[in-house]
Amino acid sequence: MSKIKEKLSHKIPQLREEIQELLKNYGDKVVSEVTFQQMFGGMRGVKSLLCETSIVDPDKGLIVRGHPIIELVDRLPEEVFYLLLLGELPGKAELEDFQKTLKSYDPLEDYVWKVLKALPKDTHPMAMLSIGILALERKSIFRKKYDEGMHKPDYWDPMLEDSITLLAHLPELAAGIYRIHTGKGDLIKPDKNLDWGGNYAYMLGLPDPKGRFADLMRLYLVLHCDHESGNVSAMTTHVVGSALSDAYYSVSGGLNGLAGPLHGLANQESLAFLREIHDKFKGVPSDEQLKQFCLDTLKSGKVIPGYGHAVLRQTDPRFTAFHNFGLKHCGHDEIFRIVDRLFAVVPGVLIGQGKAKSPYPNVDAGSGALLWHYGLKEFDYYTVLFGVSRAMGLLSQLVISRAIGAPIFRPKSVSLDWVKKTFGA
Ligand code: HAX
Fold first, then answer.
1. Which residues cross the membrane (predicted)?
2. What CATH number does the domain located at 266-373 have?
3. Which of 231, 262, 299 to mutate to test ligand 1, by most ligand atoms within 8 A of the CB atom?
4. CATH architecture designation of domain 81-264+390-403
5. Tens-digit pLDDT profile for residues 88-132
6. Can you tell me which atom of ligand 1 is nearest the CA of 41?
């Protein structure tokens, strides 16, 4: 196990002490009040979760342990995992040590591939990812130690071990799913000389003569790493983990939520939308044509994928990072040019409609166009990339939850009858 464990073991007592002190002094203070509207409305705005790894500021976007995401775009994903978990970026030696740990695992056993290959061809790659992770659950050290009578203060340790094991295997698992799902040929074994993101790109097996696709993958993995803890996948992972289900069960559960069209699947929908525009106009339409297309989309009752957000109220900096990458490397690509023009047109359209609280692009508005450009054209696979990246946040949140002794999740529910009686309706 890498030096991460040693470092975390020094930080945990301090964190626990801090929480106990805060609970002692302020345990009865009110954090948030909940209206019936909020209860019905997906708990929007109700402050009711603790999250150490990141915060989402409505105007500034994702901030990982104090670092705005836009300042992390040149970092490796494994550096970002280190940051999420420990609250500091690794030095050179620390990064090398962690990378060495990630590379120390044997390739996945054949039974995993047999399970995945036995699934019918129309199985969605996200279902394959979730099943693949569950197929690895037998590796859980947390479950084994729990069965042996592990004590609560020690929970974080095997949770960390499981998290790093799962993280180490995810690129191989996810790349294998791509190869099986697309029928592109044999599985590609991991190359121990490559970094975590570079290895994932390599195992997908797409031509990448200049290494730009690998750069895009690293960027993609950094940008999707975490989004505090109230989003569907993070909260689901937390809830499942709070029952002391291990990291495999918890992350698989969270990723099932990421597979929904209003969450992670939006990047698949977003590219389908771009392709539809490209096909209809046989290229890049004028801004006026785009505006009309968007108005027609809204009129038909559909949302404009890649726009709007539950928390953000400005252009998502993760969109900005992808947009910058596209302007630099794919400015001539017609699909990317449609992304660029939509950015100019959609906010005005959504403001005109007057419904969306944020008319600006989110992370899903541009990423698909870049993947398409580099030959990753199977857009039903895109959420898997998102899932591999988001696993970094889900896993670091799980480790921290076990470290601070977070209890089983159990809010109180009420019936409509209770609502009527209580409000005298
Ligand atoms: N196009 C059309 N209408 C939109 C819209 C969009 N892009 N975004 C919001 N609206 C509408 C909502 O559908 C809602 O309409 P109703 O009142 O008729 O139900 C109204 O505006 C208010 O919604 P909101 O409060 O602004 O947004 P929510 O917090 O309810 O939902 C969503 C946030 C991201 C789900 C929403 O903006 C949406 O559906 N966007 C398109 C899908 C998308 O891009 N999803 C990816 C989000 C990023 C993410 O989590 N990735 O994992």
1. none
2. 1.10.230.10
3. 262
4. Orthogonal Bundle (1.10)
5. 999 999 999 999 999 999 999 999 999 999 999 999 999 999 999
6. 30
